[in-house]
Fold this protein.
Amino acid sequence: MSDTDPPASAADDAIRERLDDYRESLFELLRLRTVSATGEGMDAGADAVRDLLADHGLDARRIETDRYPLVYGERVADDPDAPTVVFYGHYDVQPAEHPEQWESPPFEPTVRDGAVYCRGAGDNKGQFLAHAFALDALAAADATPAVTVKLLIEGGEESGSLGLKSYLDGECEDERRESSKARADDPESDSRAPAAAIRDADLVYVADGPQHRSGRPTLIYGNRGILTFQLDLETANADLHSGNFGGPVPNAATELAEVVASLTERHPETAPDRGYPSGGDRVAVDGFHDGIELTEADRDLVAALPDDADAVRAELDLTHFTTDRDYYERLLLEPTVTVNGLDSGYQGEGSKTVVPRTATAKLDSRLVPGQDPDTAFERIEEHVADVHPDVEVTKGTGFPPMKTPVDTPAASPVLSALSEVWGSEPVELPVLGGSLPAAFFRRVDALSDVPVLVVPYANPDQGNHSPNEHLDLDCFENGIRTTAAVLERVADADP
């Protein structure tokens, strides 16, 4: 924003004045190793998040779960008819494996080239803290809008969101105590119901993930779901000599590879045949595509996206794609089955001439709106049993897909704020290619129709889940400004 441009928010000056303090608060949180996969630092991390929210003007408390604590913070508007926005985020991070691949220590925030490098910088500490800092700046500018703001920050997004699910299902002990206390104060209230604190939400707002690769501000109306599963096959009681037994004795690696290959097929019209042994671009499981719910409006959004196929191919040194269809159409509007890893036989140096007795494949499936992880798993089980009845299929974790109609009125104030803050037209996606637990909010009857919007603040190359994860500091500042501008526009919008 130039000096002559009007401010996107009344808080812009306060944000600039306090930006160094906001950065230092972020850096303090980044130094904490809050790794949900191992449990490292999770208790201290919950306390730190609670204290940060309280220090920036919210009434904050921990919510204990059977897994990791959630942190809840709120600032209630004086007007009881004011709209309510719930901001969701997570304070847990991925492990920082392979430290030798990091250019600076993974849990020591280091600024270089205009970005802060640290595990969790973009995923998700720098994004959810933007909401608390926006509220602080609005209060400092004496410009607090008439919006009730609630933050729900979980500690298990990177490991299945079990705590979030228990909260939304009303299974947290301290939430039951809070509900009982509220009901004693107001016998007519429905505060005994699950997720009592956020049942009045008019909008659930998720700042997570990277912006579109063009670098333009991004609004996403949902996300694909995910199902993880494992295939195991044992064909003998020992690895066998390939000369003495190879041929008539079944090979676990070969047979499981055939099962894996059977899960996908070439699209009959648009999958190219260029001599590559492509696994196919379409899921070949009977009934897998049943129930998919995508609209013409969704397809129109995808058709309007920039054509990035050539750039992706060059950036990743790809020899080919598995399809000639539009890159984003295939990426966003159809489900997938993806092999994540294969293990069988001898993997050491040199050779060992054996017939492997066991083989394992780890896979995931990305699901589109209308699909259900449980049903998808049942179809996969049936398919594998038909192809090879000896293969054991084990279900892993899963998130259902989530979709908000693209014509929701809730998008208007968000699009306006994004345009003003970032200075360019937003990119709109019907769904995020990745998966988020945002669909779990729909488990609560009172929230079954609430708009859920994903508005990533992180730079496209943030490298979340990878070494050298980083958040551009300009994106961090613009994220704070965006939240402030969104709240002002929500306050001014028609009910």
